[in-house]
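Hey, can you fold this one?
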Amino acid sequence: MVYTFRFRKELPKSIKDSAPKGSEWIINLAGSGQYRFELVSDAWIKPGEGRVVIKVPDATPAIIAEHALSDEQALLAILRYNRLIDTFLRATCYSLQSHLRTQVKDMGQIEVDELYLGVDRRGVQYVIPVQAKGGKDKLGIVQVRQDVAFCRERFPHLVCRPVAAQFMKDKVVALMELVDDCGKILVANETHFRLVPAGEISSEDLDRYCAAGEDS
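Sure. Predicted structure:
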């Protein structure tokens, strides 16, 4: 029950209504098996609407797409097989472990949906915790905070670049790079991708992507 309200669903109305105007309650870890309520301005991370959608050739093995056990598992597989984290962050990234359960000081046990390590052309190394949610589930700041705390504790010399991924309508995958600004989780970069057969990417699409790249 606690897990559901921390990560997937909004709190009951009676609790929500007790928050001051413009604030929301979240439930944070406060040690092993201990929790505390905290007021924040926004508890959830929402993909933007009306963004340009980038078509990417679908490299997901058909057998994986057919037998994925959940939306979250399917999304993590899509990210992995299509190297969308690499494309999004402009770095070479490698999946280190999925559904990593570990302990964080002053928090207790946490779970990272998938953990990547990456390196860019300058040699800068990154640790990339990924939070993935299906279309009906919500992306919350609680898990992102936990992911960031874990990365800072376990990988102090790597740059932490948390990423949130969510299925949207029309088979669009939204990727958002997040930053922790004094405890406030903000979206620093966002791109929407649609996986399609290679033949569905037209020459006009490619010309448009090239023109956009020249302007960026």
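Residues 44-215 form one domain. Let me know if you want another pass with a different chain boundary.
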